[in-house]
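Chain A, query sequence.
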Amino acid sequence: MSLARTLLLGLIIALIPMQVFAWNWRTKISLSLNNQPLSAACELIEKEYGIHFSYSRDVVSMTRRVSVNVKDMPLRRVLDLLFDDSNIQYKRIGDQLVLAFKHAGTRTINGFVEDALTGEKLIGATVYMPHLHTGTTTNQFGFFSLTTAKDTGTLNVSYIGYNAGAAQLKDKENRLVNIKLSPSNTLQEVEVTDNLPKLQEQTQMSKLNLAISQTKTMPRMLGEADVLRTIQAMPGVSGGADGSSGIHVRGGSPDQNLILLDGTPVYNATHAFGIFSVFNPDMVKNVELYKGAFPARYGGRLSSVVDISMKDGDMYEYHGEVSLGLLASKFMVEGPIDKGKTSFIVTARRTYADLILQDVAHKQFNLGEEGEFWLYFFDGNAKINHIFSPKDRIYLSAYGGKDHMTVDRNHRFDSINGMPKRYHEEMRFRLGWGNQAYALRWNHIFSPRLFSNTTLNYSQFYFNTDYRYKYMALDTPLVKESDNMNGRYFSKVQNAGGKIDFDYRPNPEHAVRFGLQATYNIFQPGILRFNNMSDDLQLIDTAYNDETSGGLELALYAEDDWKIGNSVHLNLGLHASSFIVPGRVYASLQPRMGFRFLLPQRWALKMSHTVMTQYLHLLTNSATYMPTDLWVAATDKVPPMHANQVALGLAKTTQSGMFEMSVEGYYKEMRNVIEYNELSNDFQSATPSWESNVVTGKGWSYGGELMLQKKKGDFRGWIGYTLAWADRQFPTVNQGKRFPYKYDRRHDVEVVLTQRLGKRWELSAQWQYSTGAPLSLPVGSYEQQDDPSPHTPGGTGGPNEIDIVGNRNMLRMQDVHRLDIGATHVKQRKKTRYTLNISLYNAYSQKNPFFYYYKRDDDGKRQLTMLSILPILPSVTYAIRF
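Chain A, predicted structure.
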């Protein structure tokens, strides 16, 4: 780590001298004027020395006449001679000298920027005072605060996708201003836009802001747009098995992603075996992804932060949308409860694959006349927000979702193998998981410069599977034959917490955030129950790990986004946290640093250093792709995970905003990552002490990311490439040798393209390629003779085949690639919009691996077999918005 930091620091020092201007404050000036206006003096200096002056003639008067006769005098002294008696102040910004009136004191303009039609607060809108050359942006709640010299003038506000707005400041006092912007395009759902400043103007690196319109125009899987699938198309982010909407960021595991929905953590973000995420795009307003360089306000995870803000609901009019697809439908309703003061928004969706596949399932599983088959997910969001006063606003949001599968077989047979014998058989298998998330938030403006948000939230995730088998012979006269057994596997994690965040803007050069939070986590890390009440066995009733554990996490943070002139931006912060569990208190100090230096040609050099601590672990099940992984907390025996990450990169947005380019390199070290030991299987966590089945070790991930994006015009899209390594090392795994981790992907390529055809049609295509995932398989086998003695359970006297397993993850699955294409048609009729989407998932029907297994052929030889689950899948979705 020390070598990497030294190299990064050396590169920065080497590049800083590249920013050289043609003049400085010691530049020698010779000037001779006799009773000439100030404007003439500025013109002479500009002509002779290339020093450009910038000022507004409506604000700064340059008519005062001056007489000056100097030779080889430093520039600063010349300017003092010219302007000291004119009540004019000067300031260098870039290559220009900006002139403005001297003022007595400052004042603060603050308020909100919102959609003029709906009242929706706009995140990241630019607020700028051109005559003072100063500005800021709105925060996550649409709030801004701008402290300037006392002056009249105009406050300009802009947000891409909206017409620019302005507020006239006719006095010099503090003011609370609400600025309303009108949408510039009635088909804004089709228009791919973003709301961020140019890349070189952002302090944070490794950050992506996702426009929801990007999600809605990408090819859809089974007719459903998906936020996480769009995030997967970004450099440094990959998915799991083909069709999964889970995310793995820079070689990290799924538990290392902090996914927030209105500030509330979501533990499992996928539906339907990973095909869909839990985030309905009709409900999402803004998405921010941090792959590194985490601001100090975030904590608790090592790899990424996905911060999702839900829409607030229309304050002035009622709207709705109904969407019908081949396998899923949804609706959305929003509108005012008290016009201009209280609004609501409600969404819900459900798949109905079980209704379509009922006949097929009954035949496939031989369910019988009374059998049942269910396979679906549903979820719903609701949000209410109310304005109490210009300084107080409250939000209440809720999410609930569930996935469910039931196979219920109920059959009566009158013969077995042609022999008359009646029996009754019942078999039921149920699988389900679900999330709940609730948040109550209160915004308050303490002063024009101080904004606060107080949050109370609750979240939970559970997984449940149970089975029952019952068999009874109906006509055995002497011996009653029967079997009756059932079992259940259940896991659950919950948390409840509160936090308060402050946003303080003392002046345009500083944006200070600070706050504190407390979260209590409750874990039921895997309850396994089994009952066998068959006639030939003794009664067994076994329950493992039927215990509940908990831990209290406390945190406080402070960060400052600091502009040092026009070239240097710093984001400095500290996140301090502790975790209290029975028998142990863990504490952690986590410094954060983001650095941006503006190079010639408007390229930005960026660097970051981040320290993160994670108090939660996920015991990963390697044998299945269902969400059976178990959440557990750090204990007195298993410590929390820690990570150090450094990154260095270059970024630029062209002057027109047409193209964006970025390249980043990163290196991350992790400590106390956990893994099942070699002798444990995935469900042995259901024992009184799961700590005995895991081992802690180290992890590394490093690589580079490149992204080129076209953001304007009818033809848009991006190309992303990632070159990455991810390794792990544990004392008792793989003989203690370092090995590629399961999420190691050497190469990853993403190409996303969209083409507008007139005002109604848009075509889209996405092609992705990824190196195959690491894989552990037997590399040989030998035969071992069993002991045929009666005391050996299962002894057959015949040969057994014993596998020889090589090094961990020494093999790889085949490479993955896929093409998705889609077309969207939009038709507007007054206040009603009709949208038709046609998509083709896996357009050339590539057979990508879901997992590998061995099976025997007709000659009894084992063969390696690949299972692929998602061939070409067409979808059609029709939506009406009114």
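Residues 2-15 form the longest helix (14 residues). Helices lie at 2-15, 38-49, 75-83, 212-217, 227-232, 353-356, 358-365.
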